[in-house]
């Protein structure tokens, strides 16, 4: 017997062998048999008279989709009373209007009163209509539905119980969706504390307990309880400090304060939680979620089954470490402490991390070797990603040098005064740099990204959440351990957090109350997915690195092959590698053109011909499928243009605003290119590979941004800062500056304090 909220109830019914519920949301996609419970607030309209037809149609569509995937779906529905109330009100109004029209004329119609309608009568009038509606909706998806009405007595009588169980199993076997409801037309009022009467099951007092009872009886994998709130909160929703509980564990009841019950229906959230815990301990996983929100109700059921972070998931398995929400809060608190340190202390942390990268080189490379071996054995990574995953002594040395550059340049990054203004006498205004807050950096196959980004976050005083790919798990683990070791010298270990839980990237992107900026580092597909998933959180980065090199008619023969080779072949997997080579038409069939082709062949670069280039050739290489292709390998596209203007137009049409280069000795042509190409980085006679925070002298970068707001190009410390305004006055009020006031605005610019350039 389990006691909670002064209502004891048995945790496992005698009729069912104890099963095992899913431990993590990600496992819900394996659910075969699913019960969807639709609360009264979900099914009915806001006026409680009639059904929310659009919402109901969306739910039927989702259930049908899952049923057609081969799952066994059951619905426990409310709504008969509301539907019946609508029908009976209509009938009463109609009969009253006829009588009053006959006896006293139309003038008294407005004074007609609707009598209070008895719930059982409403249920009797509404059951057939509700079922007819479900049948009509499911028919649109070639699915048959069947109605089952039950009462508490059906579960107490062993024969009736067996009959019900057999009926449901037979319906599921025939691919029919059972639609179950309490028979509210005849059901007696629930007896108080009937669970105490020695019955070895939870009492069916409302549709919450009915759904839980059925889920366990039918050995269901998942019970989805849809209500009019997002899930379970630690205090009544709407209160100032209420927080949605992502995962609820048995034993956490004491941390929850329940509010009033739903606007309609028999049970409130306390009844739902009690039913959910009973079902959970009977072996059925449970999610309580919002089925009324217009933005999510159209996909709430399918999202839950896909394992997305929707509503409250009930689990019996507590994770070993903190949740990602707790990690984000720890990162924010740690970041604020970090920002309050002296600049020298933040620099000391970064210098210590740089030393650890070289001192612990062997351990880092050993962990990286494990990642490489696992990736190769599973065959899960393409060659470009394997190259990004690999660490080496030279990479670690370069990382350490970059970190020391960050430490040296970070002395006055936080709290630097950008503007000083004398607003009026003794009223001074300052604009100063401050950290953005909490950064979420998501990266694939790039363990070297972890210390780089950590150092930039430390230098700028930001809290940091890191989500690395599982292919680099061993490398990320040791690099994060070293980062926290460095942070510990000034007691700010929690400022940088590595997310190790099974959080999906899409779920992380929904933490808009906890995360201030998302920075994706990885494939163009990853960046696009994050930009699509992020709701209310800005994303800094670029979705593609389609970089161009334009060879002008006045290009130097010596420079062309060197720059093209370096841009394409030095590290083809990089986002700043050459992808499209633009050649001026006059260079075709010249010795310079032949040298370019020969060099690419020697370097084993596969060439794809653009449409115009292919038209000049009798036997051309394979024609490019798209001029907007990021190859990320020893491949590139060659296209022909007639002028520098056409080269600029091509870059604007097919490029990604990342990095574009002109090779020419004509200064006027070069300046035209530099001024007119609208990309984050535009170079003259230099490799695209210079587009990098380390090579720019920023020490490192959190990424390269192609957006036009806040930061563009390689983003270092400056890009991770924002500003705030400090106003220092002495009893100043705005009314003193009115037309007849005693003070006047001065708005005088004041000199800035001297920067620390040491």
Automatic annotation (TrEMBL):
InterPro entries referenced in this protein's UniProt entry, alphabetically: AceGlu_kinase-like_sf, Ald_DH/histidinol_DH, Ald_DH_C, Ald_DH_N, Aldehyde_DH_dom, Asp/Glu/Uridylate_kinase, G-glutamylP_reductase_CS, G5K_ProBA
Subcellular location per the Swiss-Prot or TrEMBL entry: Mitochondrion matrix
Keywords on record: Amino-acid biosynthesis, ATP-binding, Kinase, Mitochondrion, Multifunctional enzyme, NADP, Nucleotide-binding, Oxidoreductase, Proline biosynthesis, Transferase
Single Gene Ontology MF annotation: glutamate-5-semialdehyde dehydrogenase activity
Any Pfam family hit: Aldedh
Enzymatic reactions: L-glutamate + ATP = L-glutamyl 5-phosphate + ADP; L-glutamate 5-semialdehyde + phosphate + NADP(+) = L-glutamyl 5-phosphate + NADPH + H(+)
Keyword Disulfide bond: no
Domain Aldehyde dehydrogenase positions: 323-588
Domain of life where this protein originates: Eukaryota
Alphabetized HAMAP family for the sequence: ProA (MF_00412), ProB (MF_00456)
Main function: Bifunctional enzyme that converts glutamate to glutamate 5-semialdehyde, an intermediate in the biosynthesis of proline, ornithine and arginine.
Name of protein: Delta-1-pyrroline-5-carboxylate synthase
Organism: Sapayoa aenigma
């Amino acid at each position: 017997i389990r006691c909670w909220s002064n209502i004891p109830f048995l945790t496992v019914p005698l009729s069912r062998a104890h099963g095992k519920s899913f431990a993590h949301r990600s496992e819900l996609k394996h659910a075969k048999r699913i019960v969807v419970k639709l609360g009264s607030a979900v099914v009915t309209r806001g006026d409680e008279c009639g059904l929310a037809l659009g919402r109901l149609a969306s739910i039927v569509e989702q259930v049908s989709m899952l049923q057609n995937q081969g799952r066994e779906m059951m619905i426990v529905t409310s709504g008969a009373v509301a539907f019946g109330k609508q029908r009976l009100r209509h009938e009463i109004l109609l009969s009253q209007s006829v009588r009053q029209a006959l006896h006293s004329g139309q003038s008294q119609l407005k004074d007609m009163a609707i009598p209070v309608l008895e719930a059982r009568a409403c249920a009797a009038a509404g059951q057939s209509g509700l079922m007819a509606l479900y049948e009509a909706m499911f028919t649109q998806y070639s699915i048959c539905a069947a109605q089952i009405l039950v009462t508490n007595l059906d579960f107490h009588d062993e024969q009736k119980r067996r009959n019900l169980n057999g009926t449901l199993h037979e319906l599921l076997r025939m691919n029919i969706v059972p639609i179950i409801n309490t028979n509210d037309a005849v059901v007696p009022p629930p007896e108080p504390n009937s669970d105490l009467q020695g019955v070895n099951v939870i009492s069916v007092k409302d549709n919450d307990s009915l759904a839980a009872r059925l889920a366990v009886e039918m050995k269901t994998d998942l019970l989805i309880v849809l209500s009019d709130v997002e899930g379970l909160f630690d205090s009544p929703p709407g209160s100032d400090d209420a927080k949605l509980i992502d995962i609820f564990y048995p034993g956490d009841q004491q941390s929850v304060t329940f509010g009033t019950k739903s606007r309609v229906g028999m049970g409130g959230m306390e009844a739902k939680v009690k039913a959910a815990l009973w079902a959970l301990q009977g072996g059925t996983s449970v999610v309580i979620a919002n089925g009324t929100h217009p933005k999510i109700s159209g996909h709430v059921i399918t999202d839950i089954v896909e394992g997305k972070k929707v509503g409250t998931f009930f689990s019996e398995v507590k994770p070993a470490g903190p949740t990602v929400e707790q990690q984000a809060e720890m990162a924010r608190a740690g970041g604020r402490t970090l920002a309050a340190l002296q600049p020298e202390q933040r620099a000391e942390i970064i210098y210590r991390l740089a030393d650890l990268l070289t001192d612990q080189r062997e351990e880092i490379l050993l962990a990286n070797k494990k990642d490489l071996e696992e990736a190769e054995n599973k065959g899960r990574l393409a060659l470009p990603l394997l190259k990004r995953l690999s660490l080496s002594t030279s990479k670690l040395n370069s990382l350490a040098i970059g970190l020391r550059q960050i430490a040296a340049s970070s002395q006055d990054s936080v709290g630097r005064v950008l503007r000083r203004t004398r607003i009026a006498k003794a009223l001074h205004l300052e604009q100063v740099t401050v950290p953005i807050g909490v950064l979420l950096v998501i990266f694939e196959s790039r363990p070297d990204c972890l210390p780089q980004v950590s150092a930039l976050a430390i230098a700028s005083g930001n809290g940091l959440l890191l989500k690395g790919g599982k292919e680099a798990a061993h490398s990320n683990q040791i690099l994060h351990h070293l980062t926290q070791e460095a942070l510990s010298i000034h007691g700010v270990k929690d400022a940088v957090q590595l997310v190790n839980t099974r959080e999906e990237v899409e779920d992380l992107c929904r933490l808009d109350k906890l995360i201030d900026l998302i920075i994706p580092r990885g494939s163009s597909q990853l960046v696009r997915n994050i930009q699509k998933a992020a709701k209310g959180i800005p994303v800094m980065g670029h979705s593609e690195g389609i970089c161009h090199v334009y060879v002008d008619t006045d290009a130097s023969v010596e420079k062309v092959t060197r720059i093209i080779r370096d841009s394409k072949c030095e590290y083809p997997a990089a986002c700043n590698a050459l992808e499209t080579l633009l050649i001026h038409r006059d260079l075709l069939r010249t010795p310079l053109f032949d040298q370019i082709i020969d060099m690419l062949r020697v370097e084993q670069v596969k060439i794809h011909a653009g449409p115009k280039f292919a038209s000049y050739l009798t036997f051309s290489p394979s024609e490019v499928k798209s001029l907007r292709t990021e190859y990320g390998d020893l491949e590139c596209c060659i296209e022909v243009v007639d002028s520098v203007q056409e080269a600029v137009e091509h870059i604007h049409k097919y490029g990604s605003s990342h990095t574009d280069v002109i090779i020419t000795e004509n200064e006027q042509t070069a300046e035209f290119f530099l001024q007119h190409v609208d990309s984050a980085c535009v170079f003259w006679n230099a490799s695209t590979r210079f587009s990098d925070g380390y090579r720019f002298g920023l020490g490192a970068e959190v990424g390269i941004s192609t957006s036009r707001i806040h930061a563009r190009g390689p983003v270092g410390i400056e890009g991770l800062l924002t500003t705030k305004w400090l106003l220092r006055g002495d009893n100043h009020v705005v009314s003193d500056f009115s037309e007849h006031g005693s003070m006047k605005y001065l708005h005088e610019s004041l000199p800035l304090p001297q920067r620390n350039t040491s």
